[in-house]
Amino acid sequence: MEFSIWYLVLAAAFGLFMAWGIGANDVANAMATSVGARALTLKQAIVVAAIFEFAGAFLAGGNVTATIRKGIIDATPISGNPEILIFGMLAALLAAGTWLLIASHRGWPVSTTHSIIGAIVGFAVVGIGAHSVQWGQVGQIAISWIISPMLSGVMAFLLFMSVQKLILDTDDPLGKARRYVPLYIFLVGFVMALVTLVKGLSHVGIEVTTAQTYLLAIGAGLITMTIGIWGISRIQTVEIEEDESRFTTVEKIFGILMIFTACGMAFAHGSNDVANAVGPVAAVVSIVSSGEVAQQSPLATWVLLLGAIGIVVGLSTYGWRVIKTVGRKITELTPSRGFAAELATATTVVLASGTGIPISTTHTLVGAVLGVGMARGIGALNLGVVGKIMLSWVVTLPAGGILAVIFFYILKAIFSS
Amino acid sequence: MSLRLDISPQLLIIRDPLEFQLLEKQMTTSYLSGIFGASPVRPLQKHMEKVIDCVAEFKPFVDAMLAEDQDEQDRRHLMIIERENEADLLKKELRLHLPKSLFMPVDRRDVLEVLAFQDRVAGGVRSAAGLIIGRRMNFPEPLRDAFRALVVRCTDACHSAYSAICQLDELIETGFGPNEIELVNAKLQELDDIEQDTDEQQVSLRQQLFELESGIPPVDVIFLYDIISKTGGIADRAQRVGSRFQLMLAK
């Protein structure tokens, strides 16, 4: 191929741009709940997000990347003409990036995941033909977009109900919090480690047996729990002053728990959303390096690394500002609620990542928040906004698709002349 | 208590509705923060606070009446009217700005009705005070202590209703757990008991008045009965706030 280097450079640049956008915007939604609940300061949130987004993207981001890279399009019809797929993937990246830029500017609630899937499907239908889209897989992804917010909603509902029964609505919420919160912390460490070990680590070259997996996951849970117990023991019971709720200290203990769920959240987000940026890049890289569309070659590690770095750069250059503004507005979400929403979201997302299904972290989080609301845990939720989010879900797919088609023809015209 | 007096009433009134408007605007900048509506709990409690402020002026007003200090009485009457107006404004603001799309742990209609009942307590104070001022009424010497006691008990009833309303944020904190609801019910039971007291006080006041009737101008007698029932009505209205509040929790 005559423009190989150009394709690689463009793919890397577009992918980096997309990853930057994810770091700048999406991570904010994942972390803002923690900042809003005052479980983390802004600086702490950025450090936590940087470390765990990176780890999630690098360690557990492979499966979703594989899905986006080769699970959506069946490229056999164009096996003689691999450049079409290159143009398509570049166009999809550019389209999703552009759509996100427009949407963020106008304040529309769109999802990175939905944009990139819409863009890839759009290009495939026009550029190759409708038969080239693996509709079964796409259908599965679309269903998962409905199921994931519902699943996280139910999980958040149950988590919050258990908190209410075990801790909040008892005679001694403080004592109960000190006793039971470590168990929730264990749960966070256990679930995150388990899913990562079961589904994620193979591409980094670490192979473990099932028994080892569970042992390691329990170990990880125990380690996090120990750290958590240490953190909780440092919280002193503040004498209840007048005007102050008797739950002030209780919420502080939940604040410790929320530090852990925030880590889980960042990890889960990294594992799922990095693929939106690097999936198409990986496709281009594999075509350029092998010269064919079959894409048998394994995922190049440096591509995941590129995405992980892009996210962290986006977070540090622009994302902190978004976290600051969004976090300041989410004061209604106290740590006892925030943790339930975050843990439910992180678990759902990390499960989806393990299965290789790209879902929207933000939509899953919204589902979880609604779940806590259903349990009568939140003062007021604005269902108008929820409706808007649902609507954007429908609009983003064709928008990403149409933009991808436009960019596809432009790129084709430039490189074919 | 002392802090509240330092803040101008305007500020108090505007602050919460503004929150609603701000949130509508936020929808365009971040939908995740937009999903959290402004909770009606604080405004509801703040309105009850205003009502209590109004009620708190009633005792000094009656004291001034019984001490026959007209200047002080007029001053207190103006305060009552002012406080009642402030509560009324707050009520209207909350009504206008409670978005229809809110999904709340309590019913929207319940919030608005509790609000209306709260407002009626202030209205009751104003109407009792208005009647006293309008006819420059006073109680005959033998009835004064008993009437003062009734006023004190009515004020207690309002405070009791207020303390139940104050539990609303804790109710939400515990996700309306059975234990917390039990606590609120205990407070409402106390309110019922106080109201019962005021009923008995009214009966005995009327009896004493009946015995003195012959020595008082008939028109005055009629209105003295009226004042007694209007004052007792304040406790009634406080109790109705409590009952309506209880209904809100029984979901």
Number of strands of chain A: 1
Tally of separate helices of chain B: 11
For the record, what is the CATH homologous superfamily label of chain B?
Phosphate transport system protein phou homolog 2, domain 2
Can you summarize the main beta sheet of chain B? none
* Multimerization status: heterodimer
Domains of chain A (count): 1
- Please give the CATH architecture of chain B: Up-down Bundle
Overall 3D form of chain B? elongated
The percent of residues in helical segments of chain B reads over 70%
Q: Biggest protein-protein interface? A: A-B, 50 and 34 residues
Spatial separation of the terminal alpha carbons of chain A? 14 Å
What structural category arises from helix and sheet content of chain A?
mainly alpha
Succession of helices and strands of chain B: HHHHHHEHHHHH
Residues in β-strands, percent of chain B: under 5%
Residues in β-strands, percent of chain A = under 5%
- Model regions low in confidence, pLDDT < 50 over at least 5 residues of chain B: 1-28
Rg from Cα of chain B:
20 Å
